[in-house]
Amino acid sequence: MWSARLVGPWAGRLTDRLGPVVPATLGLGICVAAMLVFSRMTATSSLWLPAIGNLVLMIGGSFFFPANSAAVMKAAPPDRLGIASGVLRTFAGIGMVFSFTTAMLVAAHSIPRELAFALFVGTSRLDGRLAVAFADGLGAAFRAMTGIMVLAALLSGLRGRRRRRL
Predict the structure, then answer these.
(1) Under 8 Å CB-to-CB from 142, ≥6 apart: which residues?
(2) How many CA within 13 A on the CB side of residue 12?
(3) pLDDT tens, 45-92?
(4) Which long-range contacts (CB under 8 A, 24 or more apart) does 111-116 make?
(5) What is the rounded radius of gyration, in angstroms, for the C-alpha atoms of the chain?
(6) Which one of 52, 57, 83, 140 is most buried, counting C-beta atoms within 10 A?
(7) Residue 154 Cα distances to 9, 43, 51, 71, 148, angstroms
(8) Does a structural domain hold residue 137?
(9) Does 101 map to a domain?
(10) C-alpha angle with apex 141: 135 to 144, nearest 5 degrees?
(11) Model confidence pLDDT, tens digit, residues 110-131
(12) Whole-number average pLDDT of the chain
C-alpha cells in the first residue's frame, strides 16, 4: 500500500536514529487506533470506515515492523542471525494466525456454529439480523484485539536499552 511505502523509509530512519523502542511503541499505538476504527464497524457501515482503518493500520505497521525487526536482529549474536531471522518470521506468522483465529472465535459466538463454519469456508452469506449479530461479534473481536495491542504497546514502551553481552 502506498502509505507503507511513504511512511516505512521515514520510520526506518527514525529507528536508526532513536533506537527501536520509541518507533515500535508509536507504531503499536497507531495500530490500537486502527483497531478502534475497525471496532466501530456495523453491518451498515460505509466502506470508507475499513479503508480508513486499513490506512491507519498500515501507517502503524510501518513504524512497528522495522523497529521490531531491528530490535530482534540487534539482540542476536552475529553467528546466529539466520536463526534469529527465522524465529522472527515464525512468530510473525503465528501472530497473524492467532489474530485471525481469535477474531473468528469471538465473532462466531454471535451466530449459529454451522453458519460460522460456512462463512469461514465461503459457502454461505449473512443477511438481516444475523449480519447485524456477526458485525457486533466482529466489533467485540476488534475490542479484544485492542486490549492485546494496548498491552503490547505498554510492554514495548517499558523495555529499556540493554547492553548486549559479548
Answers:
(1) 35, 36, 38, 39, 41, 103
(2) 8
(3) 899 999 999 999 999 999 998 898 888 888 889 999 999 999 999 998
(4) 111/137
(5) 18
(6) 57
(7) 25, 32, 27, 16, 10
(8) yes
(9) yes
(10) 150
(11) 777 777 777 777 777 777 777 7
(12) 84
Asked whether residue 100 carries a pLDDT value surpassing 70, the answer given is yes
The length of the chain, given as a count of residues:
166
* 83 in a structural domain: yes
Residue 159 corresponds to which cell in the numbers above? 523495555
Of 62, 80, 48, give the one whose Cα is nearest residue 9.
62
Q: Confidence class of residue 2 from pLDDT cuts 50, 70 and 90?
A: low
Share of the chain above pLDDT 90, in %: 33
Half-sphere exposure of residue 144: CA atoms within 13 angstroms, side-chain side: 16
> Which amino acid is residue 15, in one-letter code?
T
For residue 47, what is the domain's CATH number?
1.20.1250.20
DSSP string, 50-69: HHHHHHHHHHHHHHHHHHHH
Closest alpha carbon to 39 in 137, 110, 105: 137
Determine the average pLDDT of the residues in 40-47.
88
Give me the number of domains the chain comprises: 1
Range of the domain at 97: 2-158
Report helix, strand or coil for 161. coil
For the packed helices 21-39 and 128-158, what is the interaxial angle rounded to 10 degrees?
160
> Looking at residues 152-160, what average pLDDT do you find?
86
